[in-house]
Amino acid sequence: MPDDGTQVLAERLGLAELPEDVRAELTEAFAEVALKAAAAAILEKLSEGKRAEFADLAEAGDAAKIQAFLDREVPGHEALAGAAVRAEFAAFSSAVTSPT
After folding, report:
1. Stated pTM of the model
2. I want to staple 70 with a disulfide (CB 3.0 to 4.6 A). Which of 16, 22, 40, 77 is the partner?
């Protein structure tokens, strides 16, 4: 059974009427695409050297250090990520609701 967040996402994406397994697969796919879009939007703002530094921090998995790095190196990273996710949401929603 999907959690509340997954259910809300499925509804907002226009997937509520689909069978649960299809709905789960599509919401998972959307989440992956949205995460990649957010990461790409942020990484575009970093120089090559800073990207390597970010990769090291990400590999280490220390969320506090990653947050501090992003706060320092990419001012407004939350807004960048949010805009990227909203753009993916709009594209996905449009694709789902457009007649074929």
Report:
1. 0.79
2. 77
